[in-house]
Amino acid sequence: MSKHEQFSEKLGKSLIFIFASISLLILLSIVFFIFRDGFLAFKENGFFHFIFGHDWNVQDNTFSVLPLIVGSLVVTIGALLFSVPIGFSCAVFLAEIAPEKVRNIVKPAIDILVGIPSVVFGLLGMILLVPYIRDHYGGPGLSILAAIIVLILMILPTIIAQAEDSIRSVPSSFKNASLAMGATHLQTIWNVILPCAKSGLVSSVMLASGRAIGEAMAIYMVIGNTFTFPKSLIDPSRTLTSNIVGQIEEAAVGGTHLHALFGCGLILLFIVFILNSYSFFIKRRGCRSC
Amino acid sequence: MKKNENCDHIKLSVHHLDFFYGKKQVLRKISMDIHKHSITALMGPSGCGKSTFLRVMNRMNDLIPEARAIGTVLLDNEDIYGNNTDVVKLRQRVGMVFQQPNPLPKSIFDNMAYGLRIKGIKDKQKIAELIEKSLKKTSLWGEVKDELHKSALSLSGGQQQRLCIARAIVMEPEMILMDEPCSALDPISTTKIEELMKELVDDYTIVIVTHNMQQAQRVSDWTGFFYMGDLLEFDKTKEIFHHPKEKKTQEYIEGRWG
C-alpha cells in the first residue's frame, strides 16, 4: 500500500467512526433525557401511585397513568387481534397462491401503504369512521373502536409486507422436499413453510405492535382523549401517546406535569424495549433451527 | 398410442414427449422406456433437459408457471398427465431425491415421519417401525438411532442425503428419481450412496441424473444421452459406453467436450 492509500484508508475509517459516534451519542442523549425527567415523575408521584393510580389532576399536581396503560394495551391488542390473522392470510396468499401478475401489482402497492403517514389514517378516521360509529353504534363516535380500526388499517400493510418477505425467503428446497413426498400445497404451507418463516412472522407482529403502541397522532384524532377507563368499545379513552400529544402544550417546563409526560414516555420506551428484545430473541432462536 | 409388447418389464414409458417453458421448447419428441428394477442414468451436458425430463416423471415441473408437457407418460400403463391423475398420489408412488440434500429443519424422526403423517398414518408404533426399517435399509440406523430427535441439519452432508433417500423409501414408492444425488458429496459418501442404489434396485425402479460418467457406468443398467433437448441415444449402459452409435455421444464420453 502506498503512503497516499494508507492515508486515505485511515481518513475514511476515522470519518466513519466520527459519524457513527455522533449518531450513537444523539441516541444515548435521548434515552438519557427521557430517563432523567421520567424518573422524576416516579419520584414526585410515588412509583406505585404513578403506575397503578388513576388520577390526572393538573391543579393538584398529582398524576398517575393506569388508565393510559390500559388504553394503550386495549387499543394495540385489539388491533393485533384482527390484523395478524388477516395480514398473515394475505401474506400467504401473495407469497404462495397468487399468480405472479397479481403479486407484481399488489406487493408494491402494499409497500407504498407501509409508508403512508399515520396522520392521514387519523384524518380518514376522523372524517369517515367517527361519524359512522356515532350514527350506528351511539356514543360520541370518538372511541376505542375508532382507534382500533385506524390502527388495523395502519399496521396491516406492515404485517403483510414483512410476513410476505419472510415467507418468500423460506428456501424452495424445503417446499420441494415436502411436495415431492406427496404433500399438498396447503399441507406444505402449514407444516413446512409457516414453521420455517416463524421468526420472520413473529418479528412482523412485533414491529407492528411497536408501531401500534407508539402511534400518537392518528389515535389522538379519533379516541376522544378522555382520562377514563373504557367500559365499552364505543367509549372514548386515552393512551400513553395521545396523552403526551394532548397535554404537552399546557405543561410548564420543569414542572411536575411535564415530568409526568416524560414518565409516560419512559413507560412506552420500556414496552417497546420488551417487544424488540422478544423479537430479537425469537430471531436468534429461529436461525438455529432453520 | 403404441402398445408395448413386453410391457410387463416396463415401469414407465414415455412417448413423443415435448416440453416447454413458456414458448421455449426444452425437450423434443422424447421416447424412453424405463425398465422395472433397473437403474437408468440420464446424462448430458448442462442445460440439455435431463433434469426437466426427470421432473416430468413425478410432475414436479407443475410448480413452474407456464411449464407444459405434451405427449404421453405412462406409469404402469396409466397416463400421469391424464385428466384424472392425482398428483399427490403420483408423488407418493414416485419419490424424489434432490441434488442438494434437503432435510426439513426438523428432527431426524420428524423428517422421516413427515410423509407418513401426510399419508394419513397415525399409528405411532407403525410409524416408528417403518422409520426403523427405512433407516436400516439406508444403513443410517446405526449412526442415528440414539439421536433421532436431534435436528436433521446437524448430520453431515452424506448422512443428510442418505436421510433424504430413507425419507423417500419410507413412503414405499415404486420408483425413486435422483437428481445428481452425489454432486454435493465427498467421494466416500458418494460410494455409500452408489452401493445403496444397487441394493435398492431390487425393490424399486431408479432413475438418476448424473454429470459423472464413471458413476453412470458404475451403477446404471441403462443410459440415456441427452443433448440440447433431444434424446440422442438410449441403450444398455455397456452399449452406450463401449459402442456408442452417435458421434456426439462418443465425443462426450471420451471427454472431448461438455
Detail the topology: elements first, then pairings.
The complex is a heterodimer of chains A (290) and B (258).
Chain A: H1 3-45, H2 47-52, E1 56-57, E2 62-63, H3 66-97, H4 100-114, H5 118-137, H6 144-168, H7 172-180, H8 185-196, H9 198-214, H10 217-222, H11 240-247, H12 256-289
Antiparallel strand pairs in A: 1-2
Helix pairs in contact in A: 1-12, 3-6, 3-9, 4-6, 5-6, 6-9, 7-8, 9-12, 11-12
Chain B: E1 10-21, E2 24-35, E3 39-43, H1 50-56, E4 67-75, E5 78-79, H2 87-93, E6 94-97, H3 108-119, H4 124-137, H5 141-144, H6 157-169, E7 175-179, H7 187-200, E8 205-209, H8 213-219, E9 222-227, E10 230-236, H9 237-242, H10 247-253
Helix pairs in contact in B: 3-6, 4-6, 6-7
Structure overview:
The complex is a heterodimer of chains A (290) and B (258). Chain A has 290 residues and is mainly alpha-helical. Chain A folds into 2 domains: 3-52; 65-289, MetI-like (MetI-like fold, Orthogonal Bundle). Helices cover 78% and strands 1% of the residues of chain A. Chain A contains 12 helices and 2 strands; from the N terminus they run ααββαααααααααα. Chain A has a two-stranded antiparallel sheet with strand order 1-2. In chain A, strand 1 and strand 2 (62-63) form a beta hairpin. The relative contact order of chain A is 0.15. Chain B is α/β, with parallel strands linked by helices and 258 residues long. Chain B has one domain: P-loop containing nucleotide triphosphate hydrolases (Rossmann fold, 3-Layer(aba) Sandwich), CATH 3.40.50. Helix content of chain B is 35%, strand content 26%. Chain B has helices spanning 50-56, 87-93, 108-119, 124-137, 141-144, 157-169, 187-200, 213-219, 237-242, 247-253; strands at residues 10-21, 24-35, 39-43, 67-75, 78-79, 94-97, 175-179, 205-209, 222-227, 230-236. Chain B has a 6-stranded mixed sheet, with helices on both faces. A 4-stranded antiparallel sheet of chain B has the order 2-1-4-5, covered by helices on one side. The radius of gyration of chain B is 18 Å and the shape is globular. The two termini of chain B are 35 Å apart. The relative contact order of chain B is 0.17. Chains A and B meet through helix 7 and helix 8 of A and helix 2, helix 3 and helix 6 of B.
